Amino acid sequence: MQDEIATYPSLAGRSVLVTGGGSGIGAEIVRQFARQGSKVAFIDIDRDASTALVDEITAAGRLAAFHECDLKDIGALRRTVAGIEQEQGAVTILINNAANDERHDMFEVTPEYWDERYAVNLRHQFFAAQAVAPGMKAAGGGAIVNMGSISWMVGQGGMPAYTSAKAAILGLTRSLARDLGPDNIRSVCVVPGWIMTQRQIDKWLTPEAEADLMKSQCLKRKLTPLDVARTVLFYASEEARGCTGQAYIVDAGWR
After folding, report:
1. Which of 82, 158, 197, 238 is in the most buried spot, having the most CB atoms within 10 Å?
2. Domains in the chain and their CATH numbers?
3. Which residue among 8, 113, 118, 162 is the active-site one?
């Protein structure tokens, strides 16, 4: 139930940026930061889904701002971040959520496809953090939450460019924690298991796959985007002020 979600006073009024916030896990994260009273902006390339999300949040009496941007274009990303900070102040919470887990056969991967997958799943996380870090420092600190994936931890095949990019996010998280810690900027990695977004349900959830998942998970229920959003809220808040440089897994005990 929505009213069972914790309220974090430290999130009220905070300037928040969510990448890939138009659908799936990202959209739920945007909803929940708006519910906390944060000033939340999100980046996405899907205009229709993003506009619908803004309309939904507005109808609930809350606020969220959509900024269209292709995160593969780092120049555009930097300009978008600058625009967001001009509108709502220095971003002090960054949620690096945007990703795409399209499957691919290792023998069909070209150098160009490999680079494109890394641009979609890894590169923008660093450059978004680089863009917001000066403002966070000036504000006295902040939090960066990088979204990882359980896929490489459980040895999932069929998408080596994706799994290797997601594995690298833990290294990036620890590096950012060390480099930015002296400025009171925390960096953590939230690692979702198999989360039942509409995309996952439409593309890959079969009765056989669900049965296998239930055998593997300790908790015998399907996880939803809200399960991840709850965790993200906590680690973005001051309740987690002592947490940095680590990965926090939300997988119902799969791994």
Report:
1. 197
2. 11-196+225-246 (3.40.50.720)
3. 162
